Task: inverse folding
């Protein structure tokens, strides 16, 4: 698997993608059945430990955090919360994500703060990180998930919280994302009811007519576009001017279960709508020899 992946990256790097080797991170795992257990797969990676700005992929972590808070009775379930969760994952709404982060941390955006109020606000904003760092697995120890996602950018206290040169920006690796997605999809992270709820909103239709009716479908230009017809897909994409990412769990018609997380960064790769589908197409067809 490692040799095949390396050859694939070498091939795509020669197709007018300068420095692809340094701007692509990937975690690829194959499981032996459609109901795998945690850590039961085999796989390969490329720069899989590298911390990268995750864009909207971070919303997967925030969704799992919400279900954890609900299980611990730290917040109350409501129609408005469910609506925000749906909009955050299905339509990747930044406004919904802002609401979710406020709810998780008991903070709000607003004017700059000073003194004790500022210290308390920063400590609460890191509650999500405290939870992630407590999870089993070394992949989680260095990640940073404490910022909202933005359309135009942060202002006030949120701007200050980013730090000098954006040093406190959200940061994930493909391995940490893969570990969380695997824990969710195998039922190791949350209760059955919460797992079922999140899987429902992470599910992506590969139906061409449905995709045409929704230009922001998180399939076209991402991993789902390259998967064979009849594949069942659960995923969360991330896209902005600097990155194009996707985290996908899928079952192929041939009975394969795979987990594939790809982060690509840089303005050129962010505009490359071919690379992620091509990687998914090749890797989903891989067979033991």
Result:
């Amino acid at each position: 698997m490692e040799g095949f992946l390396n050859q694939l990256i070498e091939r795509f790097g020669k197709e007018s993608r300068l420095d692809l080797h340094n701007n692509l991170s990937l975690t690829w795992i194959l499981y032996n059945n459609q109901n795998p257990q945690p850590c039961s797969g085999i796989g390969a990676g490329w720069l899989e430990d590298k911390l990268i700005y995750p864009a909207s992929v971070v919303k997967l972590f925030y969704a799992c955090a919400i279900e954890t808070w609900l299980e611990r009775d730290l917040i109350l379930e409501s129609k408005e919360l469910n609506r925000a969760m749906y909009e955050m994952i299905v339509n990747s709404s930044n406004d919904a994500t802002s609401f979710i982060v406020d709810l998780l941390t008991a903070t709000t955006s607003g004017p700059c703060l000073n003194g004790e109020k500022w210290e308390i606000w920063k400590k609460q904003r890191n509650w999500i990180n405290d939870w992630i760092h407590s999870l089993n697995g070394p992949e989680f120890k260095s990640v940073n998930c404490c910022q909202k996602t933005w359309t135009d950018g942060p202002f006030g206290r949120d701007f200050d919280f980013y730090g000098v040169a954006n040093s406190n920006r959200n940061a994930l690796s493909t391995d940490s994302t893969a570990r969380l997605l695997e824990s969710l999809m195998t039922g190791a992270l949350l209760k059955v009811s919460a797992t079922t709820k999140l899987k429902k909103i992470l599910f992506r239709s590969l139906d061409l007519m449905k995709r045409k009716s929704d230009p922001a479908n998180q399939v076209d230009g991402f991993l789902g576009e390259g998967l064979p017809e009849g594949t069942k897909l659960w995923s969360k994409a991330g896209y902005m001017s600097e990155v194009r990412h996707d985290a996908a769990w899928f079952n192929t018609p041939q009975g394969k279960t795979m987990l594939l997380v790809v982060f690509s960064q840089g303005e050129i790769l962010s505009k490359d709508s071919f690379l992620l589908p091509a990687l998914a197409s090749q890797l989903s067809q891989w067979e033991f020899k």
